[in-house]
Amino acid sequence: MNEARRSELLATYRDGLLHDTLPFWLSHGVDHQHGGIITSLNRDGSIIDTDKGVWQQGRFAWLLGELYNQVEQRPEWLDMARHTIIFLNQHGFDPSDGRMWFHLTREGQPIRKRRYAFSEAFAAIAMGELAQATGSEQLAKQAQALFLRFVRHNPMPKFTDVRPTRGIGVPMITINAAQQLRDSIELPEANDFIDHSIDAIRRYHVHEDIACVMETVGPAGERLDHFDGRTLNPGHAIEGAWFIMWEGQYRQDAELIALGCRMLDWMWQRGWDQQYGGMLYFVDVAGLPVQEYWHDMKFWWPQNETIIATLLAHAVTGEAKYETWHQQAHEWAYQHFADSTHGEWFGYLHRDGSHSTSLKGNLWKGPFHLPRMQLTCWKILETLVPSS
Amino acid sequence: MNEARRSELLATYRDGLLHDTLPFWLSHGVDHQHGGIITSLNRDGSIIDTDKGVWQQGRFAWLLGELYNQVEQRPEWLDMARHTIIFLNQHGFDPSDGRMWFHLTREGQPIRKRRYAFSEAFAAIAMGELAQATGSEQLAKQAQALFLRFVRHNPMPKFTDVRPTRGIGVPMITINAAQQLRDSIELPEANDFIDHSIDAIRRYHVHEDIACVMETVGPAGERLDHFDGRTLNPGHAIEGAWFIMWEGQYRQDAELIALGCRMLDWMWQRGWDQQYGGMLYFVDVAGLPVQEYWHDMKFWWPQNETIIATLLAHAVTGEAKYETWHQQAHEWAYQHFADSTHGEWFGYLHRDGSHSTSLKGNLWKGPFHLPRMQLTCWKILETLVPSS
Coiled-coil region(s) at which residues (chains A, B) (predicted)? Predict the structure, then answer.
């Protein structure tokens, strides 16, 4: 990447984060009355559902804490992160079992809990950032406790034990949460959990013989010839790929970097839409029809993860292929998802790039994947050595 | 409707059912080795997942029994219905609680049970037809017992009790199952359950002040200003509309016919896609964005239900408007869903009518909505008095 391109991209990510994405959520989503953030916003930022997602509270507080710790110690970022954590501590937990909820009313009454403990993982990394920012021992301890509750959680099974499966989601989130908590509170268990999770991904999900990252496999990594077992989620696997590359870069471990790049290579080939551009949501490992209805839609977050992974792969390997892929992914996403009128990104496009909905957020889309991409790519570009 | 159109349509439905839809499933789906039917078929009928849906077993046996009882006493239809019921009785029930499963392996091992008891409802109507065909007292008793288990079932809640809701699905299926069982086994409780369910729909879901059938409401019919509460399912409401019209015709009750027609009128206005044609999957009562990703796709079954409802409305009222709507719905569906190469219908189209997948079936799409439409419309047209 030459210097002109590097500095142009860096400005796009940095200014987009600070002058577009962040102001969009801060001015439209923050609930000054009840605390926390409302993320179900229409195109112009107007609220269309006052309910609150617990994931999004943790993710928003994490983002603000990370910005405070990594970018600039702006008091309003710290205040807003604190205000969100207070809401989470007041309303996020079910006193009957200590588990966190998934879905709350605006006032914080519980609507729904889910089987998995991802609410705990996002709350943990948020509290870690706030602990780092404030030096609070108590928050650091709570972050560690929540992380351990997440990794030790055994979800109630949805299925019988006739065909047990394992998914790539939990080890992936474990890697990323442990990386975050290693940075923020020097989590003592971080490296062990990262090793263990990368090992699980390599052992069960990375299928070298068919050049594929399998999303869902049997307990020993068996490929299951049914809809669920054949369904690949390329954007998700590519997110896992950059978590592993990131670890490789941190540890100066060439094998980990190579593993992450291989995962990216495979899933780019399988998931990038050669016809319309953009990363598809689901594809079938054997090219058969996918059962999920939205398989060929373009969601915002797989594009965010692909943009990070290709840029990071280029930064750590210097390979021109990754710069080309990054440019493709970046251009397509900015052309189709960015809203030049009201800011932020649309979330859900049809395969051809047309809008499926004007939603800017809901319980799943909030201030996370896009601003994390902008921050991560900005920081990667700061240390990238341009080609002459 | 003039006589030429009537006889042309009648042939389309009758011949389509007997020479296309039914042979497609009989030749590709029937599992002669383990019993029952496999419905996860690709465009050409090849099997892409050997798992079996419990709903589809009941629906397939119901269809065959209904054909045997209403159309012609073909022994192969009876044999196949019996073979499917045997599979269901061998593998469909969880001995630990008597509930039926939702998802089985090809051999009949259980994979998943769901909170609702729709498996029981579809098994009940299947057993009712088989009881009628064979005179079996035992099957009639089992059909009645399953129906009662369905209507008395209290599903485990998925949400807390902070915002309780009621859906239109259970009263709708209750009406239809009771109508079927009244015909097949003279179910003594049928009229009571039908009255009670129509009353619930009228009282809670039919919102005259905004001319709308609400899919999900509060316990007293309150409109809930959140994603779930605002989301309408026009094809589903239109299915409920023709169940009620059907009851009105059966009882010679003008008020019920008028109620069904009103429901159809409202939901046609809200759900018919003025831009591309076809019935949309979900729309928002206030015109806001819908949260479900596939909201603007065209699924096969809402078209089937709309075709039945508009034809029945025309048959019972004679109104020209319904003939026009029926023609629109029929033409669009046959143009976009029917597969002239391999038979049957595609299931899932994009909003513009292009194919999203080549799937002919899965655990949700099987030999039910399309053949039921063909049979019902054929029978409606047999008694329709053409205009001169």
Answer: none
Q: Which residues from chain B sit within 8 angstroms of residue A42, using beta carbons?
A: 288-289
Q: Residues A351-380: what's their mean pLDDT?
A: 98
Neighbours of A95 (CB within 10 A): 6
What is the rounded CA–CA span in Å between residue B246 and residue B325? 18
A196-237 tens-digit pLDDT: 999 999 999 999 999 999 999 999 999 999 999 999 999 999
Question: How far is B120 from B141, CA to CA, in rounded Å?
Answer: 14
Strand A103-104, strand A110-112: pairing: antiparallel
Do residues B134 and B75 lie in contact, with contact meaning Cβ atoms separated by under 8 Å?
A: no
Asked whether the beta carbons of residue A290 and residue B357 sit closer than 8 angstroms, the reply is yes
Measured between CB atoms, which of B225, B295, B358 is closest to A289?
B358
Cβ(A303)–Cβ(A235) below 8 Å? yes
pLDDT at residue A3, as a whole number: 96
Could you read off the pLDDT tens digit of each residue along chain B, which spans 388 residues?
999 999 999 999 999 999 999 999 999 999 999 999 999 999 999 999 999 999 999 999 999 999 999 999 999 999 999 999 999 999 999 999 999 999 999 999 999 999 999 999 999 999 999 999 999 999 999 999 999 999 999 888 889 999 999 999 999 999 999 999 999 999 999 999 999 999 999 999 999 999 999 999 999 999 999 999 999 999 999 999 999 999 999 999 999 999 999 999 999 999 999 999 999 999 999 999 999 999 999 999 999 999 999 999 999 999 999 999 999 999 999 999 999 999 999 999 999 999 999 999 999 999 999 999 999 999 999 999 888 7
Which tokens belong to A104? 């709350």
Q: How far apart are CA A378 and CA A239, in angstroms?
A: 17
Query: How far apart are the two ends of chain B, measured CA to CA in Å?
Result: 8
Subunit contact B350:A348, Cβ cutoff 8 A: no
Q: Which of B11, B20, B4 is nearest to B370 (CA)?
A: B20
Cα distance between residue B49 and residue A285, in whole Å: 14
How far CA B208 is from CA of A210, A305, B58, B214, B262, in Å, comes to: 58, 47, 35, 10, 9
In chain A, which residues have their Cβ closer than 8 Å to the Cβ of B296?
356
Tell me the one-letter amino acid at B238.
I
Give the chain B residue whose CA is nearest to the CA of A159: B112
Q: Which residue matches tokens 């943009």?
A: A307
* Beta pairing partners, A139: none
Distance (Å) from the alpha carbon of A345 to chain B's nearest alpha carbon: 15
Give the domain ranges of chain B: 165-357
Burial label for A27, CB within 10 Å (0-12, 13-18, 19+), is exposed
Encoding tokens for residue B338? 């029917």
Q: Do B229 and B274 meet the contact criterion of CB atoms below 8 Å apart?
A: no
Percent of chain A with pLDDT over 90: 98
Length of chain A counted residue by residue: 388
H helix or E strand, kind and range, residue A206? strand A206-207
Task: Please tell me the distance in Å from A294's CA to the nearest CA on chain B.
Answer: 6
What mean pLDDT is reported for chain A? 97
b/e map A127-153, b = 16+ CB within 10 Å:
bbbbbbbbebeebbebbbebbebbbee
CATH number of B165-357: 1.50.10.10
Nearest chain B residue to A224 by CA distance is: B49
CB atoms B162 and A348 under 8 Å: no
**C-alpha span between A289 and B133 (Å, rounded):** 38
Record the tokens describing residue A53, joined without a space.
């997602």
pLDDT over 90 (residue A87): yes
